[in-house]
Design brief:
It is a single chain. 22% of the residues are buried. The chain has an 8-stranded antiparallel beta sheet with strand order 5-4-3-2-1-8-7-6, with no helix packed on it. It is 0% helix and 40% strand. The protein has one domain (1-120). The chain starts with 32 loop residues before the first strand and ends in an 11-residue tail after the last strand. It contains no helices and 8 strands.
């Protein structure tokens, strides 16, 4: 079954700010946004990770920073199917949750929950 984020296509994630100021991890770049993650088997979700947006050779890339200094890098699938692992051997499994408001990405035993933003695929990115 193919996952479609929206009829307009999926090309970016909205990283809405939180009401409180969450501390930015030293290894995260300025402007990184906190997201919910659960790292490792049996772990609970919390706003432990930070996500950074970037671009490499015209491809949108998200880097998710872990509290222990580790990270995962993802590319945004231009066909609207979610995220793919940019480096590493494990594949990403994507699922829309919370009535399509968030994307849950699972890689190995790590899980990430990111807000989703729909937009016109032909419109310029903000």
């Amino acid at each position: 079954m193919s996952l479609r984020i929206s009829s307009l296509g999926f090309a970016a994630l909205a990283l809405a700010g939180c009401s409180g100021e969450a501390p930015v991890q030293p290894q995260a770049e300025e402007g990184a946004k906190p997201i919910d993650c659960a790292l490792g088997e049996g772990s609970d979700f919390g706003a432990y990770c930070f996500v950074e947006n970037g671009e490499v050779e015209g491809q949108e890339v998200l880097t998710i920073r872990h509290p222990d200094g580790g990270f995962r890098r993802f590319t945004v699938n231009p066909d609207g199917s979610g995220l793919s692992v940019a480096d590493g051997a494990d594949a990403a499994r994507n699922a829309l949750i919370e009535n399509g408001e968030r994307l849950e990405v699972v890689v190995g035993e790590d899980r990430y929950r990111l807000p989703v933003r729909d937009h016109d695929a032909g419109a310029p990115k903000n």
